[in-house]
Design brief:
The chain is an alpha/beta fold. About 45% of the residues are buried. It has an eight-stranded parallel beta barrel with strand order 1-2-3-4-5-6-7-8, surrounded by four helices. The longest helix is centred in the middle third of the chain and has 20 residues.
Amino acid sequence: MGICAWSVPMDGPYGVKVAADYGFKGMQLDIGEPERGFQLSYPHVQEAYKQFAKEYDITFTAISVRLFDRYGMTRENGTPEKEMVMEGIEKAIQAAESMNIPIVMLGSFLDGEIKTEEDFERTVECLIKACEMAEGKNIIIATENLLSIEENKKLFEVVNKDNLKLYFDTQNYYLNRNYNAAEMVRELYDYICEVHVKDGNGHISGALLGEGDSNFYETMELLKEKGYQGWVLIENYYDQKPLSNENDNPLALLEKDVAILTKAMI
């Protein structure tokens, strides 16, 4: 059981200690913002995280490039924004290699959402380049997206790289496309490398697990039925509305979700 660094109500390396205090064994990091030089790419930042991870027995499971929510892989080639995208990918792969982190997650949401054939083609091009950068480094490139079952299968067929996998999320597909997440697991299981869990009622990461409309428990049962043994990472937003409306102490909400997820994983 792990948690995304941006879900811990404590920024920076000290968030590793907070995660450990609440029973987590894994954490997904983010490469950071280009305006600040992609912070996790700095050796002194990496060293701080590694020190906390060693002290508190936390495994870093993946690195995300959350920049793509603002500047996506769908951006036109030759633009400053696309150059920033490619720099983010390169920095994330370098950091993953330096920190022995096995997955670099590249999301396709908001600005980077794949809506047209041109979006698809530009994203494919980026994923191929990312996979090639990661080859020989024991690093998986993971796509997290809103594509349908058939569209995802087409994506993997076109990219055609052994080190491309699917980062699965239990809420995104239903929230954005009204797809049944459990059915997505059933059909795409062989591509899945890691899992985010979150919930909400028409709002991203806005409800405790199982208290939203994403059919969380059915999806968890399908993962267990399929024999999934990998990391499951919480991605709820305990210090943001609407979830924070339930308790002004985000750690109290976090503690509740830990209990819910622990039970659901048994």
